[in-house]
Amino acid sequence: MGRGRVVLERIENKINRQVTFSKRRSGLLKKAFELSVLCDAEIALIIFSSRGKLFQYSSTDINKIIERYRQCRYSKSQAGDSSELESQNSYHEFLKLRSKYESLERTQRHFQGEELEPLSFKELQSLEKQLDITLALTRQHQAKKLMARADELREKVYKLEELNKQLESKEKDEFSTLILDNNNYVQLHATQVDQFESGTTLNTWYALFFLVFKFFNIKISHELVISCKVFVELIVHQRL
Fold it and tell me: Which Gene Ontology CC terms are recorded (predicted)?
């Protein structure tokens, strides 16, 4: 018959308990020694009997092993405390941000005229003051933009006026060589006639007459255009 399973419970008989303690202690010390040798492990074993007698085993100096144990446990405790503290700080920061966000939302609704009933008289006065400040700043920025726009338009007007002056000066230069005879007809210098005789086209003469009309502010009508065309063609044919 095989051995029955031993029930793990306190041995009431003191002699039997002492014998079992001695046997198991010796076996435990042997196993600890074998483990330290086979696996190159640092092992410290501390045993107190029921009578308070100390038994110990260590593969190296037991004080060094105990100190190493304390440092390892302390570092883990510190890491756990640091992680927990960081988690708490993050949660508190989240609560602060959420509270600030909700406060900003309430303020925005108040600016829009919503949820004003719960506000006290002082809170309404403060809200009115903030609205006045906001309105003043808005008008100030609006005035700056309008002034900038006015300066931009003024600059454009100045450039257009300068361009107009240049065009007027150019027109005066073009008509400075034109003279009128006794009947107020436009005559040309001899150099211009030579240029005309050397190859001036009808279109050039049409353009010249229109410039003359513009210079003297003569209103151009359909009849005037036809007369100008006939006159130019006659001059060209006579020259040819």
Answer: nucleus
Owner of token pair 């060589």: 177
Residues 67-99 have pLDDT tens digits of 888 888 776 655 555 666 677 778 778 888 888
Q: CA 83, 89, 92: angle at the middle one, nearest 5?
A: 145
Query: Could you tell me the two tokens for 224?
Result: 């005037």
Evaluate whether 202 touches 225 at the Cβ level (below 8 Å): no
Structural domain 9-60, CATH architecture: 3-Layer(aba) Sandwich (3.40)
What are the structural domain ranges in the chain? 9-60, 63-77+87-118, 120-196
- Interhelix angle 202-215/121-175, rounded to 10 degrees, is 120
Question: pTM for the complete prediction?
Answer: 0.31
Higher pLDDT pick, 119 / 196: 119
Tell me the per-residue pLDDT of 107-127, one tens digit each, with 9 for 90 and over: 888 778 887 777 788 888 888
> How far is CA 121 from each of CA 85, 116, 118, 128, 208, rounded to the nearest angstrom?
42, 10, 10, 11, 81
Measured between alpha carbons, how far is 3 from 11 in angstroms, rounded to an integer? Answer: 19
Please give the span between the terminal C-alpha atoms of the chain, in angstroms, as a whole number.
152
Picking from 39, 72, 42, 74, the residue whose alpha carbon sits closest to that of residue 57 is 42
In order of 32, 36, 43, 164, 216, the CA distances from 40 in angstroms are 11, 5, 9, 102, 119
Query: Is residue 31 a contact partner of residue 40, using CB atoms and an 8 Å limit?
Result: no
DSSP 67: H
| Integer angstrom CA distances of residue 52 from 15, 48, 55, 136, 139 | 16, 5, 10, 87, 90
